[in-house]
Design goal:
This protein is of the alpha+beta class. The chain is 38% helix and 21% strand. It has 5 helices and 4 strands, in the order H-H-H-H-H-E-E-E-E. The chain has helices at 8-14, 22-25, 36-53, 59-77, 86-96, and strands at residues 101-111, 116-125, 132-139, 150-153. The chain has a 4-stranded antiparallel β-sheet, with helices on one face. A hairpin with a 4-residue loop joins strand 1 (101-111) and strand 2. Helix 3 runs antiparallel to helix 4 (59-77).
Length: 154
């Protein structure tokens, strides 16, 4: 399958934004879910401000403060560190299967109520056209296999 290529003069005439041109943007790194802790701090600051500003107002404001605290706690416990980066996940996935690797594609998914990061890597065989493909799921923190690789013939 050939990639879609748009001539530069047509892209300029149609006003295609630069962020859609892969030759301009460069490599993409998936953001670390650990940054959810910033949201937790902001929710705690909101709870503190609402509690201070409305110390003796109504029970409704206390419920809003409690909601902010609960949101902060959830963001804090779901702020896993994505220790395994994409390149490492691709290499581990290639070692987990038995056929020679051709094309690969990786995406991060989240599992469970605490949103633990899991790499979902699709691996294609090196022959042309590929005769096999596999789905390899890796823990985003340790790099261990989440499930046995699912391999199928194409």
């Amino acid at each position: 399958m050939e990639p879609i290529e748009i001539p530069q003069e047509i892209a300029d005439a149609e006003g295609v934004p630069e962020d859609l041109d892969s030759s301009i943007v460069g490599p993409y790194a998936f953001p670390n879910p650990r940054r959810r802790r910033l949201a937790a701090y902001l929710y705690l600051a909101g709870a503190a401000f609402a509690g201070w500003a409305t110390a003796a107002v109504t029970p409704g404001y206390r419920a809003i403060c409690a909601g902010f605290v609960l949101l902060a706690a959830y963001h804090w416990i779901s702020a896993w560190d994505l220790a395994i980066r994409q390149e490492d996940a691709l290499g581990r996935a290639a070692r987990a299967i038995e056929f020679p690797v051709g094309h690969v594609s990786a995406a991060v998914g989240f599992e469970g109520w605490r949103s633990k990061p899991v790499w979902n890597v699709i691996v294609y065989a090196a022959d042309e056209p590929p005769s096999q493909r596999a789905l390899v799921r890796l823990d985003g923190q340790s790099g261990d296999l989440v499930d046995a690789p699912y391999v199928e013939a194409i």
